[in-house]
Amino acid sequence: MFEAKPQVEYNPHSPSLGATTSVDEDKSSRHEIDPATQYLRDHPEWADYDHLEAKRVRQKIDWRIMPLMVITNTIGAVDAMVSIFYLGWLVAEYPANAILQKFPVGKTVGITVFGWGAVVMCLAAAQNAAGLLVLRFLLGVLEAPSYPAFTIINTMWYKKAEQPLRMALTLAGFASLVAGVVSYGIGNLHNSIAPWKLLFLVMGAFQLLWGLVLYIWLPDSPLKDSFLSGREKYIALDRVRENMVGIENKELKWYQVREAFTDYKTYLLVLFVLSIHVPTGGVVAFGAQIVSGLGFGTLETTLLNIPTGATLTLSSFMVAVPQLWFKNKRCLAMGLCCLVPVVCCSLLQHLPRENKVGRLLAYYFFYFFWGPYATAISLPMGNVSGHTKKLTVNASVFVAYCAANMIGPQVFFIHEAPNYPTGYNTLLGFEVAAICCIAAYAMGCFVENKQRDRREGINVSVGADEQFGDLTDYEKRGFRYLY
User: What domain range is 395 assigned to?
Assistant: First the structure.
């Protein structure tokens, strides 16, 4: 029940870090070694550390990395509400991942966030619908690198068991809380600037400043940070050796792109993310209409939408936290979480309109659809090796996320208000499809692990080249999938 030791045998404190098997040597002839391997080889004098020192390093990483990612996601999500935004994101997603591979991650995120701020402030000056649409599209293009960057950063700094909780915290629903409070406060101001323009100016100015903060303070990798000592860098790298997915590689490798698109797990994960996020585009876009349809005024509707952020956060943590102690229960937790919006879909359709409290609670708990998301996008971090392959799978997952946000609003029809039967039935179908996809994904990973155990043995001894090398999960003998 509790998480077992890794199936791959290696001694992280052994001076034989540079030792390789014949298989390692054959692969190394085709694939250069991750820079982390060389750093560990160069500093064997730091290999003698204990778990308490490793814990202190992890806490130091948390205090530096996590606030930067959480705030970045929060300020980026408050203005992502229209389909044209997601179209820009979708179009730019694959190029954005290529940019993240070629250029420093921290600097790239800082520059793009600065760009967000400039575009958001320009929204306040838009004179017509065409101008707004162009700016929203451009905003989507600029936000395309953000989520893939979060996954790359998590892979660099955290163990597989630690990643779901960090992603859940990063992607928590703080944006709903912030947007609701800020919108309510600005809506009650009385000045010559229209409230919606003032909102864009305030948020855009903060994003400009935050982009500069990220450019200076967000590290590009454990090898290029300034807040860890040399010994702490060694520990940070050695901690994540067991992930067997490497740190970074700047070369685009087309064979890894082909492998990503011929791996059935890629498509199951893409379909799962698509299925759980059609509700994002639907319920989030029509959330104000759904709540106002219960008989509440404009400002009351704004306030009553604030708790949705708490539901998003709660559901994410309920799925992610158990992964710290239980091995291979991720897909089970995600599938169970998907059952909650299935029930809420039925309640929203069939509860009497007079039952405002019941319908409002069903609306709140429907936001459990977000719960599996953070864990779902942590699966490519733990289950995909090879830097190009990982970025390709990541890009495909976020393309599905964008497509879902574009599909969602199209199934809610104004003339069906306030019950929206077509919308809720469509969301119900997608949630059921999500459960089927994640069940198939888990079964596939389970079967592949068993096949590898029979072929390679349960305890596979591998060298550092395989642990950090830019090889795919199919190429690594000791690799086992999480589910």
Answer: 31-240+249-468
